[in-house]
Amino acid sequence: MIKRRGTLFVVSAPSGAGKTTLCREMRLRLHELAYSVSVTTRAPRPGEIDGSDFRFVSEGDFRAMLARGEMAEWATVHGNLYGTPAKPLEAALRDGRDVLLDIDTQGAAQLRARYPDAVLIFVAPRVYQFAVVGDQAIHEKCGEQFWQSVVERMRAHFQTEKFSHALVEAIQEIGSVLARHFPKSSTDKNELPNEIAQD
Predict the structure, then answer these.
(1) Would you tell me the crossing angle of helices 144-160 and 126-133 to the nearest 10 degrees?
(2) Structure letter (DSSP) for residue 17
(3) For residue 57, which of 85, 34, 35 has the smallest C-alpha distance?
(4) Considering 48, 84, 149, 174, which has the largest number of Cβ atoms within 10 A of its Cβ?
């Protein structure tokens, strides 16, 4: 009997959009999902745990991993390096585990090329929706040039990244996308599922 290959779910958004919070909630709701821990060169934020939230490494160690071809994707975000280790990700998918990834839009494009069957979900911050709707008060406060740049960024994401599910505004919506694959998921919120083992 051929083992089912796991599905890769990629939740992506511009930095600060709240994708990490959404993914944490989905991990609490859908215990069947494995979570791939990203590697980064940035310093830990208050409350973050090395090996659980991120794997924190030096820039030298990160670039050594790149040189050895160990990253499934990587990107520079606000001067820091972020990446997804390829070996544990591929092992989990090969073993039939469904994996959730929380990454920047740059990395999502790379994973789309590497895993064409991946389910990509783009998280659009509500502030972007204000830009599209054209709330006059917010336009006056922030300036037309700023909001125009935001709209252009949104258009670029939709045109170039080819996300499977283009607009997610709330936990309920992102949950409905994942729930199609997990109709009998536990709703027990006592603990998070195990992360993918790192070498």
Answers:
(1) 110
(2) S
(3) 85
(4) 84
Alpha helices by DSSP H, listed for 34-186, are: 59-67, 86-94, 105-114, 126-133, 136-142, 144-160, 171-179
Give the amino acid at 30. Answer: L
Nearest Cα to Cα of residue 121 among 193, 44, 18, 43: 18
| Domains in the chain: boundaries | 8-179
Neighbours of 109 (CB within 10 A): 20
- The residue behind tokens 């006592």 is 190
| Among the listed residues 53, 170, 103, 77, the one whose alpha carbon sits nearest the alpha carbon of residue 112 | 103
Q: Taking the model in full, what pTM does it have?
A: 0.69
User: What is the Cα–Cα distance from 142 to 192, expressed in whole angstroms?
Assistant: 39
- pLDDT tens for 110-147 read 998 999 888 888 776 655 444 444 444 444 545 556 55
Centroid of chain to Cα 48:
17
The separation between CA 16 and the C-alpha centre of its own chain, rounded to angstroms, equals 12
Other CB atoms within 10 A of residue 104 CB: 21
Distance between CA 92 and CA 125 in Å, rounded?
30
Cα–Cα distance between 37 and 54 in angstroms, integer?
5
Task: Please tell me the distance from the alpha carbon of residue 134 to that of residue 81, in angstroms, as a whole number.
Answer: 34
